[in-house]
Specification:
About 65% of the residues lie in helices and about 0% in strands. By secondary structure, the chain is mostly helical. α1 packs across α2 (about 25-35).
Length: about 70
């Protein structure tokens, strides 16, 4: 399904210069995907990866704390 949208001349020029051989649809989809909050949300939720050094330090600090206070 296709839709007709209106954009400014400036927006059209910018899209035209970056599209190369791609369609406007592909360019717009790339731009929208690049500006998605998905990566930020996954990073916040801990899905992007764990800093192993920070994890080791946290475990070490926790063990030290628990031996002293627990």
């Amino acid at each position: 399904m296709t839709k007709i949208i209106s954009i400014s001349d400036e927006a059209y020029q910018r899209l035209s210069t970056i599209k190369g051989g791609d369609s406007f649809t592909k360019v717009i989809l790339k731009i929208v995907k690049a500006h998605s909050n998905k990566e930020k949300i996954l990073s916040f939720a801990g899905k992007k990866g764990i800093d192993e050094n920070l994890l080791k330090k946290t475990k070490k600090d926790w063990n030290k704390w628990s031996k002293r206070y627990a």
